[in-house]
Amino acid sequence: MRDLYITYAFFAPLLFSTVCRGQNYAFDKCTAFGESMPRRASSCGWAPGSIESSDWNTFLSHGLSPIMPLVNNHYSFSIYRQRQNVNFATNNSHQAWKAFGSPIEESKAAAQFRGFALVPETSTKLPASAGQLFNPSNILPGNHIAVPSSTVEVNAQQTTGAPKDLTPLHASRADILSSAGTYGDFSRYLQLFPGVVFNNDESDDLIVRGGNPIENLYLVDGIEIPNINHISTESSTGGLVSMIDTSAIQNVELRTGGYDSSYPERLSSVVSINTKQLTADRTQREAEIGIVGAGGLIETASPRRGSLLFSAHRSLLNLFTDDIGLNGVPVYTNTLLKAEQSVSNTDKITLLSLSGVDSINIQPCAGDIAETNTIQTQYAGWRSTNGARWQHLYSASSFGTFTLSDSEQHQNIHQQDQLLNNKQQKVNVYTCKQSPASSVSTPVYQEVTGDGQTSLKYDFFAQLNARTNLKIGAVARLMRFDYNVAQALGAQSPLSADPPRSDSTVFAPRFSSGETGFYAEGVIQPTKQLTASAGGRIQTFALTGSSTITPRLGINYQASRHTGIYAAFGDYAQLVPPIYIFAFPQNRFLRPMHARHIVAGIDLWRNQWLKIKLEAYRKDYRSYPVSTEYPSLSLANMVDTLGQEFIWLPLASRGTGRAEGIELSAESRLGNHIYGQMNVACARDMFAGVDGVLRPGNFDYPLVANFAATYRSGEHYEASVRYEYSSGRPYTPFLMTESLAQNRPIYDTNKINALRGPMYSRLDFQIDRAFTLRRRQIVVYAGLENATDRKNFLAYEWMPRCEAAASCVKHYDYNLATPVYQISRFPNFGIQYMF
User: Fold this and answer.
1) By three-state DSSP, how is residue 807 classified?
2) Cβ neighbours of residue 610 under 8 Å, at least 6 residues apart?
3) Alpha carbon separation from 77 to 74, 130, 583, 692 (Å, rounded)
4) 650-661 b/e with 16+ CB inside 10 Å = b?
5) Rounded to 5°, angle at Cα 463 from 459 and 468
6) Is the dihedral of CA 496, 497, 499, 500 positive or negative?
7) Radius of gyration from C-alpha coordinates of the chain
8) Sign of dihedral through CA atoms 81, 87, 91, 93?
9) Beta carbons of 627 and 178 less than 8 angstroms apart
10) Reduced to 3 states, what is the DSSP secondary structure of residue 780?
11) Confidence at residue 221, expressed as pLDDT on a 0 to 100 scale
């Protein structure tokens, strides 16, 4: 759900999360709050749930200040429509405010404030240009729509400190659940946003403006999650499916550049996940079962101004298929627990626990002569993050947040090569099952790893005066490593024509290390239209004995009520994943990677119903890890390859890169029934190895376009469609003569990513049908991914088993490189029950 940003004294020093609780509102009453809500969201308009209105960019008039504690005081307020403005007024003349920009219907509700509230009208002054306070008795009477009792919870949280129009991309719980092609997974929904592409149809990897998935930061309610995906590896933040159930999400925000210094640094993006607002006065439950899994959640109030949320999910794909395109199918379970407690008028404590367990057995069919993979993989892992946040209001204009968290991650991976040493296997060609007596695959890789990260963080926010605010903070981390990795035989590199296996390594570090970070960020508004920010971050990394200082700058000019321009500059630094540092002795000297962002954009038009934005960016990489053996190879192009043989290489911090592009995006709500978004991006991503030659990256797509729309017919039907297009995927051709001689893939390193496959094109759709039974709701949904069953090119791979059959070699005209395609037509269906 979208958050409600409250701006006062020309700034937004506090974020007020506003939620409404009710009983099956009608659709027009839901839109009275400024946002059309899909019925599957268990939200306002369709079922008991919560609503939000992030489109109210100015919920209060500029200048409503200060903020004071107020607990359990009841007020009634009304929402009125008056031309293009939306006026909010209470029936108590000591409380009144006004907001702009949302042409909505009249409504009224009872409200209870918890945590923070506005001081009386007599203490507040407003600039004439921002509007004026009004008395409810002066508003023209109208036909009010009755809305059930509501709870408005106001929570102090730090703002970004960046210019207000450098806003994050936003996805609500409702948007995600109702979107075709996502399977209810927020990461797959984020792949619709401008500047974002994905590794392949099976993965949850986010490739943001050319960056490797290791460059993404994930936060859940402000707590860092090292990896939020199932079936993930040590060296990536990607995986096959998200570890957090979207039913437990309120909203997700994606920052693709120019983010401020308060975030632990990543080179490409920040993904902030906010869980459901816990405001239920009674217990509410949801249950869902579908092709991808079964799960549910329960939300309940706890004694003394507290609340509790619990969700759990278990995969079911293994009941429908034994292969999702990886020669295997994942099995996973995840749980989320969140508890909130207001311990006093100025203090609030939040507890969070997110855990997941997963496994997959990848078994290529040894009897299939067209099979390209020879590596068997057995993977099992678990990861868990537990944290607590204490939020304290110091005064009417300052607050602070302590965060303590601990994350653990464990993987157990074993791999064998079916063809190494030319061992023959007896295989049933119909079932692809090996005879037990012939299971003679050669072990080639073993990884038993465990990571721990304990963090203590403090953030402080203060409004210094009507035009200036400041936030500062610090974090300390204790990193724990317990690795046992063995690649004793090395590997035959596809980048070398030398037959011997190379780069054998065995490492088993077991120790702890520390990291620290300090930041400061200030925002000033010299005029009503102009806002500027400046800040910086200092980091230290004991593991490599390195430190970084990275500055930030931003500026925004609001040219009119609907248009504005903005720009941002930032330098970002992060450490290489530790497993790379441990792999070879020379890797201990790797320096932090750096990326410099320059972002500029124009809000061409922005109001409640239509938003159009044009944004350009450039990212310059330096000190990027690159191979010292293969001059053209950069870590930027080494993305998660679960199912292929793992390879560790000697590296040096000598790589460079450049990602640049321009993005046009639009979002529109047409009346009460249609919501749509589209974007087009033109971009180039280039990276260089130790040879210094810039080459297209693995995810260099010159043109990417996305379109998604949702149509709601009455109160019972909903249909969504999604279309994605991109330029052909870059790839490197094989040296055919050398590859045939050794029956293995050997790339032509003089043509790294020099060729492109056909364009990518995918159409998804989904239809929902809602039923109401005694104030309880049942939703049945069904859809198709890749509805046209298009063959979307993934890569060229080698067929090593084909050589054993002369007829096979002749059939392929001595070219054993075969195209591999992404997911074909795949269904999605299920049922959701809310009670």
Assistant:
1) helix
2) 666, 667, 668, 669
3) 10, 21, 62, 64
4) ebbbbbbbbbbb
5) 115
6) negative
7) 27
8) negative
9) no
10) strand
11) 94
Paired with 405 in beta bridges are 387, 455
Rounded CA gap, 320 and 534, in Å? Answer: 54
Asked if 314 and 295 count as a contact pair (C-beta separation under 8 A), the reply is yes
How far, CA to CA in Å, does 253 sit from each of 275, 279, 407, 505, 727? 12, 21, 22, 40, 26
Give the pLDDT confidence score for residue 274 in this predicted structure: 94
Q: What does the pLDDT read at residue 17? A: 30
Which tokens hold the place of 779? 């939703």
User: What count of other Cβ atoms lies within 10 Å of the Cβ of residue 626?
Assistant: 28
pLDDT of residue 198: 86
Q: How far apart are CA 742 and CA 422, in angstroms?
A: 13
pTM of model > 0.70: yes
Contact 209, 197 (CB under 8 A): no
- Phi, psi angle pair for 661, to nearest 5°: -175, 180
Q: Do 23 and 42 touch, CB atoms closer than 8 A?
A: no
Q: Is the peptide bond before 66 cis (omega within 30 degrees of 0)?
A: yes
pLDDT, residue 640, reads: 59
Show the low-confidence residues of the chain (pLDDT under 50): 1-165, 437
pLDDT for residue 424? 54
Q: What is the pLDDT of residue 2?
A: 33
Q: How far is CA 37 from CA 29, 50, 51, 542, in A?
A: 10, 10, 8, 48
Residues 65, 12 contacting (CB under 8 angstroms): no
The number of helix segments (H) and strand segments (E) in the chain equals 6, 46
| Residue 34: predicted pLDDT | 30
CA distances to 172, 294, 368, 791, 816 from 813, rounded to whole Å, are 52, 47, 18, 22, 8
- pLDDT of the residue at 429: 52
> Residue 657 has which token pair?
């890169």
Paired with 613 in beta bridges are 603, 665
Tokens for 52, please give them.
């939000």
SS3 544: coil
Tell me the backbone φ, ψ of residue 735, rounded to 5 degrees.
-80, 100
